[in-house]
């Protein structure tokens, strides 16, 4: 049964149970023309009592979460792949414009200075061009290399070696550049930046070498949501314009229609569209920057129709001030040539003050608990916070990470749209069905929360089963690491020492992962604890554990390695039960040593035998025991981590201090699996350093 059929059936059943009063209200001839902002709307709402404030608040939370999930990708405008220029040696040179140097061969080779930090731009010096250079050695790895520049301020000359490869002479262009380059290295890429912008000159945000096709595809894919959703905004704009034509006295619809149209232009002129239309940059930039004034003006008109009288008058004053202040800054920055960038920079200060006032107004409305303004206030807060954040980033008062104005814009549009549509749609929905579904979902959520709490408790209990992550004495140091695939896992390690100062070290890996593996791991803990009187006999330890586990683990076998270290004689005794071998890093050895003995996994066969290996330890030896979760780590491009990669990392970092060595291994595992995103099994290891 489809959702529509189920909904229709439930509504038909509910309709037969409606009271005479409810039928009368629902069948009113004019209910489709109720003004959402009118007093009659509020009275009708109180009369019908379809929804409560608490339900509205729950819906608002749902809207926020939905918008975050859908549009979070829209806030991140990054072209993936390639080699970042910020990792190369970057140098700059100031040249006075009167010298009119337009070729890098005329630049003094000894006058270059290195950029500090992750920068490819500087605060401008009056009447000076900024030259930037960086090596192009990495271009040879690409078939059709290109230089991707997310933002360059403003007029550019780009040379590869002494060959001019790109010229751009337009102002106020803040969209990406994709510059084709030659595969053969020419030594350096030189870029001359000339700009009248008073806050910054140079390159900003993403700058990298990559394949030309990857740059185009990446630019399109990173802006696909904005390109796709722009027609949605235009559609909503025309829809509300049509609603306005039906009842022209409801002016909120025309203001909202125009506001949506303005927002659609902002979203439509994104990085990909701006790059594709760069030959019309003068027109595109003019439309974009003027729209930054028009959009706040339309927002003020819209809010003036919604908020109480006092704020309505304040918004009218702000409307006039916006026009006057923007016009003043536009005239101020029109000499020697019109600069929308400088105008936007100056106007941003006023926008922040204005946003602060609107924010206070919204907070006041929330405090007053004005029922019909909840959605409007939510959208307004989203726009103000996101807009203020991006303005502060542009003014370099906040560090750049993501642009969130698009996120705030869509939250605002969704909230405002729902405000206008909400109560027209609300009267044709079954509230009882909604309440029943909500109760069912809440019960399911409570059940899931209870399970989650139990898993968190189990995780803490399992941590208590593991030995301390760092331990040691005058003879040795031990560090360990564990990261379960799920909340709890099947990896277990333990280390104990006897009254003579000798050490027994155990690492186990239960087949599978999750709750069942964690239970068997706990059984392994109990079995190992029972062997404490004879930890100096490795084979006896495993025979005892195998007897205690046999027939009780439901076929879930356990691989394990056990080491006994006699600290007086420096003799290591070890046994293995189907577990990966362990490694020894020895200062006197030119290679990485690995050791293993034969032995069946624990708990499978009742009569398993375990052979004991011996090894003389030396001062400075480092022992590395691990579970198979490490070689099974995955990377989407490099494949499985593998033991060879592990051995290489261990060997290359063998001279690092012990704790630093420990941190390096964790970092390598974490980065290879993309923050454990591609972890397929529980990951554990133990490292021992002999003093």
Please specify the SSE layout and strand pairing.
Blueprint: H1 3-15, H2 20-26, H3 39-48, H4 53-71, E1 83-84, E2 91-96, E3 113-114, E4 120-122, E5 128-135, E6 145-153, E7 155-160, E8 163-168, E9 177-180, E10 188-194, E11 201-211, H5 212-222, H6 224-246, H7 252-268, H8 271-276, H9 281-306, H10 309-332, H11 340-367, H12 374-394, H13 405-426, H14 431-465, E12 470-472, E13 476-483, E14 491-497, E15 503-510, H15 515-529, H16 538-549, E16 558-566, E17 571-577, E18 582-585, E19 593-595, E20 613-616, E21 622-626, E22 634-635, E23 639-640, H17 642-652, H18 658-672, E24 683-690
Antiparallel strand pairs: 1-11, 2-3, 2-5, 4-11, 5-10, 6-9, 6-11, 7-8, 7-10, 12-13, 13-24, 14-15, 15-16, 16-17, 17-20, 18-19, 18-21, 21-24, 22-23
Helix pairs in contact: 4-13, 6-7, 7-9, 7-13, 9-10, 10-11, 11-12, 12-13, 15-16
């Amino acid at each position: 049964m489809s959702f529509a059929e189920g909904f229709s059936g439930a509504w038909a059943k509910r309709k037969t149970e409606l009271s005479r009063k409810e039928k009368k209200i629902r069948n009113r001839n004019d209910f489709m023309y109720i003004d959402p902002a009118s007093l009659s709307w509020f009275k009708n709402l109180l009369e019908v009592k379809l929804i409560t404030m608490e339900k509205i608040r729950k819906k608002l939370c749902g809207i926020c979460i939905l918008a975050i999930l859908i549009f979070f990708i829209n806030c991140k405008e990054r072209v993936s792949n390639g080699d970042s220029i910020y990792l190369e040696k970057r140098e700059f040179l100031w040249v006075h414009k009167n010298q009119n140097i337009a070729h890098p061969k005329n630049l003094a080779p000894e006058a270059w200075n290195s950029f500090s930090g992750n920068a490819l731009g500087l605060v401008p010096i009056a009447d000076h061009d900024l030259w930037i250079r960086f090596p192009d050695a990495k271009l040879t790895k690409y078939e059709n290399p290109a230089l991707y520049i997310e933002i360059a301020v403003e007029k550019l000359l780009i040379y590869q070696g002494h060959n001019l490869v790109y010229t751009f002479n337009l102002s106020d262009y803040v969209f990406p550049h994709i510059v084709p380059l030659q595969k053969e290295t020419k030594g350096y890429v030189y870029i001359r930046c000339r700009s009248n912008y008073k806050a910054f000159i140079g390159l900003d945000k993403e700058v990298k070498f990559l394949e030309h096709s990857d740059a185009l595809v990446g630019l399109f894919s990173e802006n696909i949501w904005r390109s796709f959703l722009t027609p949605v905004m235009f559609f909503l704009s025309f829809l509300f314009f049509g609603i306005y034509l039906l009842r022209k006295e409801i002016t909120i619809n025309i203001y909202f229609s125009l506001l949506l149209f303005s927002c659609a232009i902002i979203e439509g002129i994104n990085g990909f569209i701006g790059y594709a239309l760069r030959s019309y940059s003068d027109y595109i930039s003019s439309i974009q920057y003027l729209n930054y004034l028009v959009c706040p003006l339309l927002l003020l008109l819209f809010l003036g129709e919604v908020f109480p009288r006092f704020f309505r008058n304040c918004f009218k004053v702000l409307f006039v001030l916006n026009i006057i202040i923007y016009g003043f800054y536009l005239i101020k920055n029109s000499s020697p040539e019109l600069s929308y960038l400088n105008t936007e920079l100056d106007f941003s200060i006023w926008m922040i003050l204005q946003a602060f006032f609107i924010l206070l107004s919204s907070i006041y409305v929330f405090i007053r608990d004005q029922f019909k303004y909840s959605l409007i206030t939510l959208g307004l807060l989203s726009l103000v916070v996101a807009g203020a954040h991006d303005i502060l980033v542009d003014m370099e008062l906040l560090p750049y990470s993501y642009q969130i104005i698009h996120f705030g814009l869509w939250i605002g549009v969704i909230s405002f749209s729902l405000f206008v549509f909400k109560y027209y749609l609300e009267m044709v929905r079954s509230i009882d069905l909604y309440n029943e579904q909500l109760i069912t979902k809440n019960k399911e959520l409570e059940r899931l929360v209870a399970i989650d709490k139990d898993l968190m408790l189990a995780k803490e209990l399992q941590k208590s089963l593991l030995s301390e992550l760092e331990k040691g004495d005058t003879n040795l140091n031990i560090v360990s690491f564990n990261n379960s695939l799920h909340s709890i896992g099947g990896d277990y390690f333990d280390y104990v020492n006897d009254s003579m100062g000798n050490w027994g070290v155990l690492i186990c890996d239960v087949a599978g992962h999750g709750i069942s593996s964690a239970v068997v791991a706990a059984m392994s803990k109990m079995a190992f604890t029972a062997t404490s009187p004879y930890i100096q006999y490795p084979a006896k330890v495993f025979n005892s554990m195998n007897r205690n586990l046999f027939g009780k683990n439901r076929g879930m076998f356990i691989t394990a390695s056990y080491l006994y270290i006699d600290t007086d004689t420096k003799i290591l005794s070890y046994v293995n039960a189907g577990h990966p071998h362990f490694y020894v890093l020895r200062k006197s050895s030119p290679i990485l040593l690995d050791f293993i003995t034969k032995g069946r996994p624990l708990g499978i066969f009742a009569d398993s035998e375990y052979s004991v290996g011996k090894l003389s330890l030396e001062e400075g030896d480092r022992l590395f025991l691990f579970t198979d979760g490490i070689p099974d780590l995955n990377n989407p491009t490099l494949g499985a981590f593998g033991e060879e990669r592990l051995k290489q990392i261990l060997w290359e970092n063998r001279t690092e201090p012990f704790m630093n060595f420990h941190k390096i291994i964790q970092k390598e595992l974490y980065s290879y699996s993309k923050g454990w995103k591609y972890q397929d099994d529980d990951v554990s290891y133990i490292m021992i350093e002999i003093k």
